[in-house]
Amino acid sequence: MRRSRTGMHGGVGQAVESQGRGIETVRLPAWKMSEVNIAKRKEKCENCTKQCNKKQSDEGANSQQEKSDEVNGQMNEGSHVLLSACLSCDGCVSEEETLKISRQSLEELERALALNKKCDASKHKVVVASVCPQSLPFFAAKLGVEINEAANKLCGFLKSLGVKYVFDTTLAAGFSILESQKEFIQRYRRRHHDAHALPMFTSSCPGWIRYSECVLGSLVTPHICTARSPQQIMGCLVKDYFSKQQKLSPEKVYHVVVAPCFDKKLEAVREEFYNSLLETRDVDCVLTSGEIYYLMEKMKVSVDELDSVPLDQVLGDAGEGALVRHEGRGSEGFLEHVFKHAAKELFGLDVHEITYKSLRNRDFQEVTLERDGEILLQFAAIYGFRNIQTLVHRMKKGRVPYQLVEVLSCPGGCLSGRGQAETDSGGHVDKALVQMMEDTYSSLPVRLPEVNPTLYTLYQEWLQGQDSSEANTLLHTQVTDSAWTIPKPKTTLHYGPVREREVSVDLILPFGHKGVMVDHL
């Protein structure tokens, strides 16, 4: 499939120098979060506001406009909600978190790389980058190359900046899938004497986890799978296993993740992923695909002159270099992997193909396993805030028939993450780009984590077995019920890379996507 090269500059300009030398004359753009001005128009979502215990008193002169935006209880196409406004709510992000998130920037990466060029070796760190597989189709589309070549070009670009190792996180996702499969079987078998065993909700999406903790509380949190997300397992893999292999202390490794989603920045700063003894995080910095591409454009990088460098392997030469994906239409396929595993483990049935049945829309689908007319398993995939709200309402009424629900905050799933799927003008999903990314992602061969020998090698070498205490500690975490208990003065945040956009700072909304539109109700 041919693709046009979009947005890349033809000349080299102040482009990438030879690999390993870094950038001497080009300063990385700051991309710092800045305060957001009061919006010209307030954008509200009544349904979301009702769920928050801190309703707004300032309705102002915009109430009539808001009413006109609502049609049959839903917001029309002109009304959107921004996470910039959501996270400025004084019940969501603390001052301390605000400072931590502000460090998730290109400026911070520049600072780490700059220290490596100074004479004081005590401040030098080995910079490691981990790239989410859902980011690679974005670079393939933008660079106009096939996905394997895009991965190599991206690797070459990052290493030219001074990054020492570049991995992809598919291996970490394999761990997360296997642990989720195991936990589902355990929950299913104790369903009759544990009211919180089922349904099990997936735990890979930080936007969903944040919303569950801050708003839904005990209604949902006991049902969330304890398996860590692929990002945070990759953090453990890099800071624990890989650093030991390189004979480095974890604090001497600076770990950057390239992801399609802004919410991953929030996940990286969670307290349970910080080692207070060593003063280091599993993931030091999360940059979106759009941020990295913006840097490429800013530096006037020529695609043709970028070195094509293969991705590194955690196990070195013993690892496999070919790009693969997991099942699923654009995320990590937790539903499909757990469904097939459960069908075999619990009922002795081999499921080769999964048929989705769309209910409300493409982002609300269910899968059913039947035998002799009896429903054995019923799973659902629910993406986007509007559909999540439907799930929550049904759960409150005790009308959730599913044993497992794969929940993702981004409509369309991870490929549609707002860190890479916006139009150039901003604010809307680039549907043509998303379709191209879906086609590219689906072209990768599927490999089940159950048959990945690298995973089993690491289970033994790194974790001392699949059921060890080490595996339980490093591959699992616990979601807590912290519904709106964080005190803080009001703070406004903005992730915007190039275009600053005005948003309402008085909106109470528990969930959304930073600096971009969210699925409106």
UniProtKB/TrEMBL annotation:
Disordered, as annotated region: 54-73
Signal peptide annotation: none
Domain of life: Eukaryota
Polar residues bias locations: 59-73
Pfam families the record matches: Fe_hyd_lg_C, Fe_hyd_SSU
Xref: SMART domains: Fe_hyd_SSU
SUPFAM superfamilies (alphabetical): Fe-only hydrogenase (SSF53920)
Domain Iron hydrogenase small subunit: 427-483
Family: Belongs to the NARF family.
PANTHER family: NITRATE, FORMATE, IRON DEHYDROGENASE
Name of the featured protein: Iron hydrogenase small subunit domain-containing protein
